[in-house]
Amino acid sequence: MKTFPIRLIPGQDLREALEAAVRAQGCQAAFVLSGVGSLVDARIRFAGADEPLCICGDSEILSLSGTLGVGAAGDAGRGHSHLHIAVAAATGEVFGGHLAPGCRVRTTAEVLLALLPEWTFMREADAATGFAELVVKAREG
């Protein structure tokens, strides 16, 4: 495991930028150890919901954690990530759930990643849960 601190800048898509950072380090698997910062129009999918909710306006990232799986180079950039986030809206109201694509960094996102260069994270259908669940494999070659 190798730790990798990163700062994202205004306008970046949080999820896409984290997956790109892992890929740029030559890894296919990582964990988010910690994350703070701010977003504009955070998109969070609550448990059991089909579509994400937009927390419109400015929000603060209170917590960010989860797995980042970026697949092999020929995987067309398809991510296999599973990230959870808690944000506080400008009113102080707190929301938490699955980080959906489209969350844009407002001023900064400061994230500490744990890179796992010897592993690959994939998602495969699980008959027991009905969802695409994490599959951990040793990385080939």
How would you summarize what this structure contains?
With 141 residues, the protein is mostly beta strands. Helices cover 8% and strands 57% of the residues.
Write the layout of secondary structure elements.
Elements: E1 2-8, H1 14-24, E2 29-45, E3 53-69, E4 82-89, E5 94-99, E6 104-115, E7 119-125, E8 132-138
Antiparallel strand pairs: 1-6, 2-3, 2-5, 2-6, 3-4, 4-5, 7-8
What report would you give on this structure?
The protein has one helix and eight strands. With 141 residues, the chain is mainly beta. The strands form two sheets. Strands 1, 2, 3, 4, 5 and 6 form a six-stranded antiparallel sheet that branches. It is globular. The relative contact order is 0.30. The model has no long low-confidence stretch (mean pLDDT 93).
List keywords for this structure.
two-stranded antiparallel ribbon, 8% helix, 141 residues, globular, six-stranded antiparallel β-sheet, 1 helix, mainly beta, single chain
Fraction of residues in β-strands? over 45%
Uncertain segments: none
**How many extended strands?**
8
Radius of gyration: 15 Å
Structural class: mainly beta
Shape: globular
State mean pLDDT (0 to 100 scale).
Answer: 93
- Helix and strand succession? EHEEEEEEE
CA distance, first residue to last residue: 17 Å
Largest beta-sheet characterization: 6 strands, antiparallel
Question: How many H/I helical runs?
Answer: 1
What portion of residues is helical? under 10%
